[in-house]
Amino acid sequence: MKKRILLCLAVVLMMCLTAAAEDAKMQPLTFWYEYAVNPGKDAQFMELVKTVGAPVRDKLLADGVILAWGVHVGLLRSPGNSTHTIWYSVADWSGVEKVDSAMRAQIAKLDDEAMKSGTAKKGSTGGATVTSRMMETADVSKTRDYLTRDLVFVTGTGALPAGVLPWTRYNYVKAKPGKGGDYRKVWEKYNKPVLDKLVADGVVLAYGLSVEEVRTDGDFTHFVWYATKDLAAFDKVRATFMADRDKRSQEEQDAISAEFLKTIEPEASRSEVGRSIMFRVGAMK
Predict the structure, then answer these.
(1) Euclidean distance between CA atoms 52 and 24, whole angstroms
(2) Residue 115 burial (CB < 10 Å; 0-12/13-18/19+)?
(3) CB distance 34 to 67 below 8 Å
(4) Domain with residues 10-281, CATH architecture
(5) pTM for the whole thing?
(6) Which of 78, 95, 100, 247 is the most buried if burial means most Cβ atoms within 10 Å?
C-alpha cells in the first residue's frame, strides 16, 4: 500500500472464507505485508513466498486459523511504491499471534538449516538465510505492514470457480473528525443495498467496509473493497450504481451527495485495483 492497503483485498478478496463468514457479525482481521521487489526479482520473491511462508499459511489454513491468504500486485504501477502484497485473514487477534509465532519459528528453522549446511555464515549478510535472500530480492527499507478489520463483511453463497484469481477494487475515503460513524450509516443506507444486489446476482464475489485496526499514517480512515472474478464485472458494478442513482429524482441524488460530503474529505478519496497471483481460501463447511 503505497500509503495504502492494497489492496488492499482485500482483501482482496475474501470470497467464501469459511462457514463463519455466514455470520453477519463476523469482522475478520486482515494482515498485509507490502514489499517493493527489486527489478527483475519477481521470480525470486515468489520462490521465497512458496518455500518460506506458503507452507506455514497453508497449514494454518487447514487448521482453521487462517481464513484465507494470498499474494496480489497492483494493476497500475507507480514509481517508489510497493510492488507485491502478501495478505492473510483471521477471525481475531489470537489468529494474528498464531501466524506471527509460526512464521518466526519457520524462519528460525530455515536459517538454522542454512547455517548447519554451510550455505550461510553466522553474522553474514550474504548466503542462504531467509533474511539475506529477502534483502537480495526486495528493498527492505520500503517494507510496510498494515492490519485492518472489516466492519461489514459479505460473501456470496457459491464457491469460487476453479482456477479463478480474483480482482479487487479498493475505494479509500477519509472521514471528517468524529464523523466515522455517520459515514458508515450513510454508506450502509445507500451503497450497501447496491452491493448486496451485485452479490446476489453473482457479479461481486465478496465485499467489505474496512478500517485500520492499528492506525498508521492516517491518509484514510475507511475503505470499501469488492472482489470479482474478472475486470468485466467492474463495468457491471458501475452500471448498477448508476442505475440506482438514475432512478431517483435529481433532488434525491443531490441529497445523497450532500449526506456523503458532510462526513468525508472528498479530496482525500482515491481508488486502487489489485490482481491476485496467489489466492487460497479455507474449505466451506
Answers:
(1) 34
(2) middle
(3) no
(4) 2-Layer Sandwich (3.30)
(5) 0.84
(6) 95
